[in-house]
């Protein structure tokens, strides 16, 4: 909390520094009777930055290392026999010392070394706090004096301030790169560790998924076959696309070509609500409503459909994807130039003929792109499948039976305690990498197709 | 329009060439095809709207009843013979905080050893036939087991209540609630019902006397999750956990995302590096959310050793996930601002940074806010990545800092849907979904209002 207050004080001081800088620049301009290079505000900002950046850096350093230094100093002064205690007991001793130092007290009579260590801890903490305040004050003062002395009408304050702003902006935009690097490195790193237990060939071409609990090193490598999971993923995605593509595309066509403006204004956002509903809600819907309903419907026509099956998960996922397809396709269809429609209508084609023979072929690349994006969505979708697919990782062709997918298995293997030294946990990263590469491939392809299409008509 | 012109020409050339006749004959078919196609489109729209309606209708019909819960209003005599504890210790009587807390703990233990269940049972027996006293356990079974602790907390707060008679409102057991609401098949044989025939008769009796009523289920909103007493399980812990995460997401992803978007849209030169960032962002936007969970598990938990189940980690993961959304939304807003505004500013001598800060950004704020709200709403509903960083643990406390263990609203939904007490938790889960959807809907409505209010068309 101390640190936070100090940071707030620094921020307030920056405000004052801004005023000093502004006034100093005005005085400098008057004194030398020449025009300032930049606005007074720029000089103010420059001074504020010179005060703030070193001071905040000192605070950051103390926040990162202060406690560790104090702790190691206190530990260093403990008697040797205490230091020889096992880790857990040493931790208790440190907690007791902290309780004594903070004035909270401990039960019973504390040992002499504890009292002296607590005394030491208290002095060290005071020293650290004083050092922090002194360091921050010194850094701030140094920066302030340095910046104020630099102020002269010829100082290019605007350029310097803007360099800082630009650097900050660039740093922010590299976060995206860092995220990608982080994803790739962590997935690849853990996957390589996984492959030291299980050979990649067994993983990518194995047809059995049944990872048993084995102790590290002694484990057999069988039962880590990817194919049953991949099959379940593909099956569910295919069902989802079978549901969402016709409905979504017809909605897009109707909205873009037929719907009166008023209907469009109401219905489009209403359907897009479907896209904003969290997937866990769809999962619950699939589990409690869609699954039993499909099962009953199947029983009516003599089909044996499980309540949690590839069909249930696929159908509900299809519902989730409908707005995705419809709004993307809608955008693409409206982008097809008016002249092409007019040409076709002028030749006597009906509207539906125009749509089927002119508009859709022209929009096809874009729609394929939207389709691919939707497939990548379906493959990466997790919660619906976790709740509604039944989790049976077996290679079997029947969509009315339970299946399992890549995402479900990642959740299953990594929920609860994570042990980064067992293939049971590490396999999740190999599965994640597979998923990442699959969706990345689909996305790149889709974006490429969509971009080609855009260029065609712009 | 096309068919209209066809009509007038056919009138003039009736019974003319065979081509005309063929065209005429085909017209009916083509018009029918047109109508069919159009109806198909309309049907798709109706299906879409119907699905939205179905989803909301089922969730609402299942969830709304859970906002009212069977509650017992009892006159409880806090019998000093059962509640036999010494007076509470005073701080002034002890040397230091630690010893006082030890003594206070002892007093609390004495309170905890008290058979509060018996106090409640005696209160309930006053409304029941005298022979009910023989089966005390069954009588106590009517009251949610957490209510003992509620009563204890009341007395701990005010020890003067011992020996008094107070009006105490306590939740009935979950099974009682299910029975009263009729969420269980009453024709089931006796041994398969969760309540004995005695208990069922007592329930009728309590209903008649107005002791057992349906009250607003404040427990759902203000209690934490509970395993031992399903009737008192609530969303407060999950809500605070989600709140912490959303704060982290807002504080981190909005400034970073906006800064990145400004750099890419306004400053970045077109070169390999910025192209690379762009491709990165577009791909990150389509990476399945569960992959971000894997990133969180590997980087934040395995490398940085941050605690499992902490909202801090969840917030960081969701921040990374939301960044692309915010960047993309901000960029499209910036792109929509006409270049003439920038040119005017630059023409008057403003620098690039000044142009953006003084002219472009203020115009873009509504769009940026809309994008940010949508991004935050998306993060609020996300479940899958949180499961991988341990947020699905059972937590029975309201987290007080982002480092405490916690769950989140969607994760709580996931946990509740898996509870064995299906009859009770199906409604409770739906109610939790209603709370989540209400939050999301209000966020989205806010975004729409902002857009409608401030959107400028250039």
Q: What is shown here, in short?
A:
The complex is a heterodimer of chains A (about 450) and B (about 450). Chain A has about 450 residues and is mainly alpha-helical.
- List unreliable stretches of 5+ residues of chain B: 1-6
Q: State the largest interface.
A: A-B, 100 and 97 residues
Number of helices, counting only DSSP H or I runs of 4 residues or more of chain B: 18
String of helices and strands of chain B: HHEHHHHEHHEHHHHHHHHHH
Q: Any idea what the shape of chain A is?
A: flat
The overall pLDDT of chain A, averaged over residues, is: 88
Portion in beta strands of chain A: under 5%
Which class of the largest domain in chain A in CATH terms? Mainly Alpha
Globally, the shape of chain B reads flat
Strand order of the largest sheet of chain B: 2-1-3
Oligomer: heterodimer
Total strand count of chain B, please? 3
CATH top level of the largest domain in chain B is Mainly Alpha
Q: In percent, how helical is the residue content of chain B?
A: 55-70%
**CATH-assigned fold name of the largest domain in chain B:** MetI-like fold
H/E element sequence of chain A? HHHHHHHHHHHHHHHH
Total domains of chain B: 3
**Major sheet characteristics of chain B:** 3 strands, antiparallel
Known CATH architecture of the largest domain in chain B: Orthogonal Bundle
| CATH architecture designation of the largest domain in chain A | Orthogonal Bundle
Count of alpha/pi helices of chain A: 16
């Amino acid at each position: 909390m101390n640190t936070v207050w100090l940071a707030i004080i620094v921020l307030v001081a920056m405000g004052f520094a801004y005023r000093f800088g502004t006034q100093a620049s005005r005085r400098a301009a008057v004194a030398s009777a020449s025009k300032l290079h930049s606005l007074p505000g720029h000089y103010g900002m420059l001074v504020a930055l010179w005060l703030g950046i070193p001071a905040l850096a000192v605070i950051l350093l103390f926040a990162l290392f202060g406690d560790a230094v104090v702790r190691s100093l206190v530990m260093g002064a403990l008697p040797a026999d205490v230091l020889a205690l096992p880790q857990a007991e040493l931790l208790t001793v440190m907690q007791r010392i902290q309780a004594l130092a903070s004035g909270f007290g401990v039960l019973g009579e504390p040992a002499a070394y504890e009292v002296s260590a607590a005394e030491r801890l208290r002095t060290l903490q005071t020293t650290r706090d004083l050092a922090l305040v002194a360091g921050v004050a010194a850094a701030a003062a140094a920066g302030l004096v340095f910046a104020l002395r630099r102020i002269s009408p010829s100082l290019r304050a605007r350029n310097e301030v803007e360099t800082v702003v630009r650097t900050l902006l660039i740093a922010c935009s590299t976060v995206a790169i860092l995220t990608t690097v982080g994803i790739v490195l962590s997935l690849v790193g853990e996957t390589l560790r996984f492959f030291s237990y299980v050979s990649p060939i067994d993983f990518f071409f194995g047809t059995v998924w049944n990872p048993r609990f084995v102790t590290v090193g002694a484990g057999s490598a069988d039962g880590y076959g990817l194919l049953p999971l991949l099959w379940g993923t593909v099956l569910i995605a295919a069902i989802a696309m079978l549901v969402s593509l016709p409905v979504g595309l017809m909605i897009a066509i109707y909205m873009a070509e037929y719907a009166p403006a008023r209907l469009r204004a109401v219905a489009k956002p209403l359907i897009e609500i479907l896209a904003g509903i969290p997937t866990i809600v769809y999962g619950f819907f699939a589990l409690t409503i869609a699954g039993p309903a499909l099962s009953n419907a199947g029983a009516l026509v003599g089909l044996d459909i499980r309540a949690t099956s590839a069909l249930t998960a696929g159908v509900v996922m299809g519902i989730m994807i409908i707005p995705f397809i419809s709004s993307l396709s809608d955008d693409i269809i409206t982008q097809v130039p008016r002249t092409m429609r007019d040409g076709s209508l002028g030749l006597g084609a009906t509207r539906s003929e125009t749509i089927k023979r002119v508009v859709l072929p022209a929009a096809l690349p874009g729609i394929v792109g939207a389709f691919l994006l939707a497939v990548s969505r379906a493959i990466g979708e997790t919660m619906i499948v976790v709740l509604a697919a039944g989790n049976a990782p077996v290679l079997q062709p029947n969509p009315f039976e339970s299946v399992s997918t890549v995402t479900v298995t990642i959740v299953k293997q990594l929920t609860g305690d994570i042990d980064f030294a067992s293939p049971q946990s590490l396999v999740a990263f190999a599965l994640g990498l597979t998923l990442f590469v699959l969706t990345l491939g689909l996305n790149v392809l889709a974006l490429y197709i969509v971009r080609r299409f855009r260029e065609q008509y712009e | 329009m096309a068919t209209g012109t066809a009509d007038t020409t056919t009138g003039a050339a009736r019974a003319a060439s065979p081509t005309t006749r063929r065209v005429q004959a085909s017209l009916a078919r083509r018009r029918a095809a047109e109508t069919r196609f159009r109806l198909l489109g309309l049907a798709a729209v109706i299906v879409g709207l119907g699905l939205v309606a179905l989803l909301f209708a089922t969730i609402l019909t299942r969830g709304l009843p859970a906002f009212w819960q069977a509650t017992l209003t009892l006159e409880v005599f806090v019998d000093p013979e059962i509640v036999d504890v010494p007076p509470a210790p005073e701080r002034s009587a002890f040397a230091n905080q630690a010893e006082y807390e030890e003594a206070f703990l002892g007093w609390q233990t004495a309170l905890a050893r008290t058979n509060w269940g018996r106090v409640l049972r005696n209160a309930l027996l006053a409304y029941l036939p005298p022979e009910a006293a023989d089966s005390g356990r069954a009588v106590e079974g009517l009251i949610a087991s957490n209510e003992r602790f509620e009563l204890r907390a009341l007395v701990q707060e005010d020890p003067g209540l011992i020996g008094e008679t107070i009006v105490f409102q306590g939740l009935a057991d979950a099974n009682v609630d299910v029975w009263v609401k009729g969420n269980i098949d009453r024709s089931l044989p006796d041994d398969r019902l969760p309540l004995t025939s005695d208990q069922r008769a007592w329930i009728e009796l309590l209903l008649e006397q107005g002791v057992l009523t349906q009250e607003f289920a404040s427990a759902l909103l203000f209690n934490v999750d509970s395993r031992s007493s399903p009737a008192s399980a609530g969303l407060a812990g999950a809500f605070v956990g989600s709140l912490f995460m959303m704060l982290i997401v807002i504080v981190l992803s909005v400034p970073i995302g906006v800064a990145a978007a400004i750099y890419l849209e306004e400053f970045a030169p077109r070169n390999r590096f910025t192209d690379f960032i762009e491709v990165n962002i577009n791909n990150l936007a389509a990476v399945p959310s569960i992959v971000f969970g894997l990133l969180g598990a590997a980087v934040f938990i395995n490398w940085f050793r941050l605690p499992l189940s902490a909202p801090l980690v969840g917030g960081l993961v969701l921040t990374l996930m939301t960044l692309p959304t915010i960047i993309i939304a901000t960029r499209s807003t910036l792109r929509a601002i006409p270049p003439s505004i920038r040119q005017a500013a630059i023409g008057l001598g403003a620098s690039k940074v000044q142009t953006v800060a003084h002219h472009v950004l203020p115009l873009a704020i509504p769009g940026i806010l809309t994008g940010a709200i949508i991004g935050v709403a998306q993060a609020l509903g996300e479940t899958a990545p949180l499961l991988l960083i341990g947020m699905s643990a059972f937590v029975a406390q309201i987290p007080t800092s982002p480092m405490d263990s916690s769950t989140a609203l969607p994760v709580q939904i996931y946990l509740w849907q898996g509870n064995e007490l299906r009859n009770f938790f199906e409604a409770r889960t739906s109610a939790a979904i209603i709370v989540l959807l209400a939050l999301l809907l209000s966020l989205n409505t806010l975004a729409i209002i902002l857009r409608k209010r401030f959107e400028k068309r250039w």
